[in-house]
Amino acid sequence: MMFAPNIVLAGFMGTGKSIIGKQLAHKLSLPFLDMDELIEEREGRSINQIFATDGEPYFRQLEVALCQELAKRSGSVIATGGGTLIPEANFKVMAETGLVICLDCEPDALWQRIGDSENRPMLAEQDETRLNRLMNLLKQRQPAYQRIPYHIDVTHHSPVELVEQIIKNLPSR
Ligand code: S3P
Description:
This protein is of the alpha/beta class. The chain has 7 helices and 5 strands; from the N terminus they run βαβααβαβααβα. The protein has helices spanning 17-28, 35-43, 47-70, 88-97, 107-114, 130-146, 159-169; strands at residues 6-11, 32-34, 77-79, 98-104, 150-153. Bound molecules: shikimate-3-phosphate. Residues 13, 17-18, 36, 47, 81-83, 120-122 line the site of shikimate-3-phosphate.
């Protein structure tokens, strides 16, 4: 049987990784795995609760282990969390067996999408306002997202259009 790479969606919070991933998997008749959902299911609590009780480093460890586990699969569509592929080791392990695609979005549109979402502990206000936090995090993460070989701008497109665009550009499988 031919080796079928995973399709791994990365990118900042609010770029639509989960919804696009789900629709893409459906169209291609592939299994869909959402890392945030898997972590919540296995931990039996929400991401917010994980951050509040055990802190971000604990959550990041769960992500590392899950990347290693999911990279062993093939032929799945995987939606990562916005911070999952920031550590280079996570990116490398996923890229070994997956086609990694980064979803990009203009900051204004991101703010519209996630400015008031409650389930995003990374945007919780500490010393800076939520908007500053978002802008700083975006800037900090830019170099890591730039390592990703394929990019697609989601700002002005619907998930349906984006799924089509991704499928059209998939290397022949
Ligand atoms: C995070 C993004 C979230 C989730 C967690 C941390 C991040 O996923 O994994 O809250 O560090 O950017 P989404 O990108 O699906 O919101």
